[in-house]
Specification:
single chain; 143 residues
Length: 143
Amino acid sequence: MLIGLIALVATAAFAGAAFYINFAEHPARAALSSSAAVRQWAPSYKRGFVMQSSLAIVGGICAGLQWYLGGGAAWLFGGLILLANWPFTLLIIMPVNRRLLTYEALPEGDVGALLGRWNRLHAVRTALGVAAVAAMLFAAVNP
């Protein structure tokens, strides 16, 4: 069960960080001018990418391992939901990230729209994290 606990903690940390970004950090960033907001977003994104990608890998692998070792299917389901953040990020969010990272070449009006789009897409990551936590909590209390 220790592996399941690690999965749950990593997944809850992922979901909490994603929630914080959507509901605290990004609204505060949006209060800035577009140029200041995107200059703040770039280093925040780089640090957040390392943290959240690591949490998704640890949580997903540990959840899958807990399932493999005899845990219920909810462990596998939760792990797969959490790991779904990887393809979603790489295929859907990464093109927006790449454009935002070239903010110096973007028209001012595009920056605000891209940051808004980024926040809406990141909300999907938050929802996936929360759903993964729910599945793993269910698995933990229903062995």
